[in-house]
Known about the structure:
This protein has about 280 residues and is an alpha+beta fold. It has two domains: about 1-85, Phosphorylase Kinase, domain 1; about 90-283, Aminoglycoside 3'-phosphotransferase, Chain: A, domain 2 (Alpha-Beta Complex), CATH 3.90.1200.10. About 45% of the residues lie in helices and about 20% in strands. α3 crosses α8 (about 230-240) and α7 crosses α9 (about 245-265). The radius of gyration is 19 Å and the shape is globular. The mean pLDDT is about 95.
Amino acid sequence: MDLSERVAGLLDVRVTGAESYGRAVTGERWKLRLADGGDVFVKARPGAPDGFFAVEADGLAWLNAAPGGPPRPAVLAWDAEVLVLPWLPAGRPSPPAVHRLAGGLAALHAAGAPVFGAARDGWIGAAALDNRPCPTWPDFYGQRRVLPYVRMLRDSGGIGAAEVAVFERLAARLLELAGPAEPPARIHGDLWSGNVLWAYGRGWLVDPAAHGGHRETDLAMLTLFGGGWVPALLAAYDEAAPLADGWRDRQRLHQVHPLLVHAVLFPGGGYLDAALDAARHYR
């Protein structure tokens, strides 16, 4: 069964056209035209790991349950290898839209989570995420976000003992580096600027790695892989939900994990050096 037939079966409507939007690390991306005149966005990953799209669908639903949060596309259908979402026409990040997104992110984070972690493991891009809960964010970040990817790099020959020691020292110091303790926030978990789509005058969140985490993680990811609108968003967020003193210096701490993920997924791309630089910042 080809993709159009598969989506037609899921939605119970005929597909009349298909336009490829290329491949990402998570699979193929398509715009499909339906017989009723509507368009849908389809992510397809043949042979996807068990639960791959189920976790994304659950994550979007969990984020959508937060009152006052940014808009997230409702999942129209999914199966083991396909996820179908509404098509969002491309817009631009106007100043009012950026300000509104900041307030929405603050509301999303304030909705909270029961634990640091999630009920099931997941993925960030194509990399597996261990979401087993931990009692504190420093424990969670060290044991579930930093050290697993350090071990992957070590086991693949990407780093040696000296580099491993840099990250192990960082993990051992997280309690003193993490800033004032905060309760688990409901976070997107992979909030780089490419996962914010501007449509209908709003910033929409897509492709989550949703879990209970630290709200500074989402903001640090925006800073790491952000657009020109990010500084205005950070200022508006800090006004709506003031961040603890020192949050700007802690951004590099929160960026160690996504940099390690990229080092695993894209060896030789300079991400490992950037992760080491970030970790050494806290010597």
